[in-house]
Amino acid sequence: MPIRIVSPGSRRVAVLGAGSWGTTFGKILADGGSDVAIWARRPELAREISESKRNSDYLPGINLPRRLWSSSLLPDVLEGAEYVFVSVPSQSVRENLLIVRELIPKDTIVVSLMKGVEKGTGMRMSEVIREVLDIDEDRIAVASGPNLALEIAKEQPTAAVVSSTSMETATAVAVAATNPYFRSYVNTDVIGTEFGGVLKNLIAVAIGIVDGVGYGENTKASIITRGLVEMTDFAVAYGARPETLSGLAGLGDLIATCESSLSRNNTAGRLLGQGYSFSDVVAQMNQTAEGLASVAPVLRLAEAKGVDMPIVAQVAQVLAGTMNPRDIAPHLTTDSDEPRPES
């Protein structure tokens, strides 16, 4: 077992998941004064993080803080944790939580770093956490925003929003997740914050597709703008506040994810636009592009509320191979042949 470095009076934090975002958020927390343990599924990765303070698989060239260590043994990582941050692929979160639910200390705050909805149930990640761990929603928080992992790991300044039904919980998590290069804001709109993070991934796939096809900035700006309308209509139908979708978890994350080559969803879309099949894209991706898995459940949820999402619907057709990627942009920017109000 690695030597745990604990500073007197500091927060003891566990992060489940040693991919690029889990490791980066562990760095954020350690640089904010917490003692951080990261669970890595592979023992060799845990050793590298603990001994070399590197994660060369996911964050090449980044030096990790001294206050951060890793283990592949869940009991070691979770022992004494006051906060547990969960950063695993959204489609495997339930099975991972079933493994750890007896190991998480009582009264621990659990924070979702994930941006997806569960395929079979359509549940948001905080809902899965609440159901599997059987804990009060006031002990659950979600973090979201324009958070491209490698940029943050390089300590380029950015911000995020932490949301919980309890402002006290949101504030406590935000304090832990604040340091000189990363600032966390707070709100109590968990629905809007989570759906913002989910839905922007789908629009980013669309942007990647048209980028891969070779369309220019006018097309992309139109899709981003109309995509934000789809995101807001959907989230509000499920109880979100519209202003949340205009904030960091909505518009902010949308801009970052659509415009950056570091975005996994943008990259996946670009490969689709270049003519690769869905299976080829999945095979080429080193990490999960959550948008690909969320398209179908989001469309089912939209149908249940009568929300029209033409952009997301046509992304689904490209994924299914029933629409040529070159045909996607003209349809995306016009919902019908009849002129209609913009909002």
Automatic annotation (TrEMBL):
GO process terms (BP): carbohydrate metabolic process; glycerol-3-phosphate biosynthetic process; glycerol-3-phosphate catabolic process; glycerophospholipid metabolic process; phospholipid biosynthetic process
Species, as recorded: Marisediminicola antarctica
Binding-site positions, sn-glycerol 3-phosphate: 115, 145, 200, 253, 263-265
Family named by the database record: Belongs to the NAD-dependent glycerol-3-phosphate dehydrogenase family.
Gene: gpsA
Function: Catalyzes the reduction of the glycolytic intermediate dihydroxyacetone phosphate (DHAP) to sn-glycerol 3-phosphate (G3P), the key precursor for phospholipid synthesis.
Stated name of the protein: Glycerol-3-phosphate dehydrogenase [NAD(P)+]
Top enzyme category: oxidoreductase
Chain sites annotated for binding NAD(+): 17-22, 149, 264
Residue ranges annotated for the Glycerol-3-phosphate dehydrogenase NAD-dependent N-terminal domain, each copy included: 13-169
Active site: residue positions: 200
E.C. number: 1.1.1.94
Keywords carried by this UniProt record: Cytoplasm, Lipid biosynthesis, Lipid metabolism, NAD, NADP, Nucleotide-binding, Oxidoreductase, Phospholipid biosynthesis, Phospholipid metabolism
Transmembrane segments: none
Main location: cytoplasm
Protein's cellular compartments: Cytoplasm
